[in-house]
């Protein structure tokens, strides 16, 4: 197929998503037998090493088609955990698509390429991991295939992580890598278990995807937490406003986005957690209906009941929709200006509210938002010209509403909304001078 390097727009990009590509990727990943983090790394046909090299080869193939637009890297670290008793080399595979005008700002799509079966320490038995997380890995690879044909102001990183099942190690390594490279990480879309539509409950749902986001920042200081507890902001972390941003794109994927105001499913985890711990706005994207007979189970049949994470449990039209949502979100985030920094709200003991922020490169205008404090999403907005960085909202008092601001490009692409102060800031900001 002839590949065009012309900008094709977010809608055209989502139309490029191929169920056949997604299926081929998962078939290949399952074909490595096991992708357990401590499995064979040398074999070309079995184990985590072969799987990682396959991922890197796919990225390299896409890069060849776009004139070298993807830089493929494999950061690694020797790590231990309760599930890695002897130090083991954890390797992530990254494809980096450098932004044209704002390359230090980074949006990331991630998934874990490692798999497991019933015994998390079994490093040799079959662990097909078709859905957990072959589905997310296929979405990452497909996003790279489709979006590498376009150019964006910000950098996009496509990340295949290892060691998730052994203690979120690949996510930790990604966080360290991002810090080492001084990336200003705007968003992490962590896709983990995104291809199954038939749940353990017996319910089938191929129309809904869940987006999980933390409410308050893992990184806030006790002093910041105190102020946030008093003035509000417990539902306005950058991850939460990233979740609202993604929900605003649901029309581009054919899916309903069910936002869940939690870091992850109850008591469970994923690679977005170490990214959040490093201060990077991150969400977990997961199917609506999980099938527990297919997760973390040896492939077997007991009394006619089938267990195991095999490819027949993946609903490819559904996975294609989830992939489209991711691609729409990556294109919208990387194409829009950065979310504003230094957002301040003032107006106590006055009838008006004043919002101010630092200028954002590439912003043609700004959009100021507010909502009742009990509303789950933003309800009202007003546009402000791009040469101003503050606004007074007459007659709208600071006490009764929550406020935010986003940056908008000349072609109308908007950043996520930023809630004022440390509770809502997307990027780490230098501490204010004291005294
Ligand atoms: Zn998983």
UniProtKB/TrEMBL annotation:
Keywords: Hydrolase, Metalloprotease, Protease, Secreted. GO terms for molecular function: metalloexopeptidase activity. Pfam families: Peptidase_M28 (PF04389). PROSITE patterns: FN3. It is found in: Secreted. CDD domains: FN3. The keyword Secreted applies. GO terms for biological process: proteolysis. One of its GO terms (cellular component) is extracellular region. This is Peptidase M28. InterPro entries: FN3_dom, FN3_sf, Ig-like_fold, M28_fam, Peptidase_M28. Residues 339-430 form the Fibronectin type-III domain. It comes from the Bacteria.
């Amino acid at each position: 197929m002839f590949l065009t390097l012309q900008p094709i727009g977010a809608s055209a990009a989502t139309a490029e998503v191929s169920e056949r590509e997604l299926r081929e990727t998962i078939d290949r990943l399952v074909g490595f037998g096991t992708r357990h983090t401590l499995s064979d790394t040398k074999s070309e046909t079995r184990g985590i090493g072969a799987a990682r090299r396959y991922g890197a080869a796919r990225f390299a193939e896409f890069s060849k088609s776009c004139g070298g637009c993807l830089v493929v890297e494999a950061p690694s670290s020797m790590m231990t955990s309760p599930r890695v008793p002897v130090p083991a080399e954890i390797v992530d595979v990254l494809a980096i698509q450098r932004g044209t005008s704002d390359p230090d700002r980074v949006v990331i799509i991630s998934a874990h390429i490692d798999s497991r079966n019933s015994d998390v320490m079994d490093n040799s038995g079959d662990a097909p991991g078709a859905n957990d997380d072959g589905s997310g890995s296929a979405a990452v690879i497909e996003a790279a295939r489709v979006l590498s044909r376009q150019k964006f102001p910000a950098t996009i990183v496509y990340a295949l992580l290892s060691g998730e099942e052994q203690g979120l190690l690949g996510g930790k390594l990604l966080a360290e890598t991002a810090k080492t490279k001084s990336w200003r990480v705007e968003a992490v879309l962590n896709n983990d278990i995104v291809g199954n539509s038939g749940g353990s409950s017996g319910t089938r749902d191929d129309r809904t995807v869940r987006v999980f986001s933390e409410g308050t920042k893992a990184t806030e200081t006790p002093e910041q937490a105190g102020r946030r507890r008093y003035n509000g902001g417990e539902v306005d972390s950058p991850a939460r406003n990233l979740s609202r941003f993604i929900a605003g794109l649901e029309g581009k994927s054919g899916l309903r986005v069910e936002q869940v105001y939690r870091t992850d499913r109850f008591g469970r985890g994923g690679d977005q957690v170490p990214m959040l711990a490093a201060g990077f706005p991150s969400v977990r994207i997961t199917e609506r209906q999980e099938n527990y007979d297919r997760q973390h189970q040896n492939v077997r049949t007991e009394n006619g009941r089938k267990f195991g994470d095999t490819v027949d449990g993946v609903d490819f039209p559904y996975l294609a929709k989830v992939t489209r949502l991711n691609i729409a979100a990556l294109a919208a985030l990387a194409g829009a200006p950065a979310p504003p920094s230094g957002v301040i709200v003032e107006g106590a003991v006055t009838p008006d509210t004043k919002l101010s922020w630092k200028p954002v490169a590439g912003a043609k205008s700004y959009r100021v938002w507010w909502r009742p404090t009990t509303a789950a999403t933003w309800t009202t907005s007003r546009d402000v010209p791009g040469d101003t960085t503050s606004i007074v909202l007459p007659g709208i008092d600071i006490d009764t509403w929550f406020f935010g601001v986003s940056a908008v490009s000349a072609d109308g692409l908007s950043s996520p909304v930023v809630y004022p102060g440390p509770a809502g800031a997307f990027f780490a900001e230098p501490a204010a001078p004291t005294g």
